[in-house]
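Q: Here's a chain of 112 amino acids. Please give me its 3D structure as tokens.
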Amino acid sequence: MSIPHLASGQTASVLPLGANLKNTPTTALFKAPHMEVCRLVMLAGKQLPPHAVAGPLTIQCIEGEVEVELDGNSQRLHQGDLIYLAGNVRHDLKAITDATVLLTIVLLGNGG
């Protein structure tokens, strides 16, 4: 069963999951024609392989610690840190500890 996306005017909590982190799936909170927001739940050691998306994006660390690698440099994000990446910037993301991040992507073209 898929989790429904937020409708206009609805709210969702993005507070740290704490003890519930390991039992909470990654969730697309909403997707509109030009923007998508997801809460990624990443257990320690999980890595998203190097990739790039056409539009700009932000990654905000809600809890835990993640490492973003881009252009051969690594940056660690801790709770409350946010990083902005321009479109087409190749990057990867690795959870150093169990973590949740809020990912916001600007979708270009047809929204997909």
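Q: Can you summarize the key feature?
A: The chain has one domain: 28-106.
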